[in-house]
Each structure stands twice: as C-alpha cells, then as structure tokens.
Amino acid sequence: MPVSPELEQALPRFVEAVQSSIEVQNQLNLVVELAQLTDIVKQVEPALTGSALIPYEQATSPPKITIDSGVLEKNIPWRLLRCPGGPLVLQMICEKVNFALWIESC
Questions:
Q1: 105/90 Cα distance (integer angstroms)
Q2: What's the CA gap between 46 and 56, in Å, rounded?
Q3: Alpha-carbon distance 105 to 3, whole Å?
Q4: Is 50 in contact with 101 (CB distance < 8 Å)?
Q5: Are 6 and 106 within 8 A, CB to CB?
Q6: DSSP summary character for residue 17
Q7: Which of the 8 DSSP states describes residue 63?
Q8: Predicted pLDDT at 85
Q9: Interatomic CA distance for residues 61 and 14, integer angstroms
Q10: Model-level pTM?
C-alpha cells in the first residue's frame, strides 16, 4: 500500500531538521551501524520507519526520478528520489556509511 503524500513529507522535514543542526550532521558522520542510524532518525523524525545502510555504488547511481538534492554543511550529499511505482526515498552519503530512509507502508 503506497504512503500518502502528506506522510511522505517526513522525508523533507528530516532533511530540513538535519540541515539546521550541525550536531546531528556530526552524529550522522559517526554512524557505522544501522542501530546508531535508527536512534538518530527516531530523535529527529519518528515517522521515518524504513532504513538501510547501502553501498556507495547504490547511493551514487543515477536515480529514476530525482525530487530534490543538495549537500549539507558537514559535506553530506543527500537526495530524495523515487523509482517508478515505488516509495519516496532519502539517500545520504556520510563519512563512514551511506544510507537510505523511507516510510514503510502498512
């Protein structure tokens, strides 16, 4: 079941919150395992329930549809993307790991 556009707004809200917090950016750059990432995400935007560490190749491969992208102050590239028929996904490339976040549907 697809996630509503309203619920998907949690992804850009997460980006905005991380953009405005150097402390959270520093924490993301220290992440080495999924549990650490999950803890940070729960504190910043609890609606984001799906997460995965992803290989660099996946984090940098050309997306089907790019919605938005940028680079945070602590040199963390990010992009919101959507594969046809799939969920909206946020990918970030941090110093130690790369990850994807999304909202799991019921």
A1: 15
A2: 25
A3: 6
A4: yes
A5: no
A6: H
A7: P
A8: 79
A9: 22
A10: 0.91
* Residues 6 or more apart whose Cβ sits within 8 Å of residue 102: 11, 48, 49, 50, 51, 87, 88, 89, 90
Strand order in the sheet with 77-82: 50-54, 98-102, 88-93, 77-82, 65-71
H runs (alpha helix) in 4-102: 5-8, 10-19, 22-30, 34-44, 56-60
Average pLDDT over the chain reads 93
Distance in angstroms (rounded) separating the CA atoms of residues 21 and 16: 9
- The predicted-structure confidence for 85-94, as pLDDT tens digits, reads as follows 788 999 999 9
Give me the count of residues in the chain: 106
- Rounded CA gap, 75 and 26, in Å? 10
Q: Measured between alpha carbons, how far is 28 from 21 in angstroms, rounded to an integer?
A: 11
User: Are 82 and 88 a contacting pair, CB within 8 Å?
Assistant: yes
Q: Match 């402390």 to its residue by tokens.
A: 23
Give the C-alpha distances (Å, rounded to integers) separating 67 from 40, 57, 76, 91.
23, 19, 17, 12
Residue listed under structure tokens 């992804």? 11
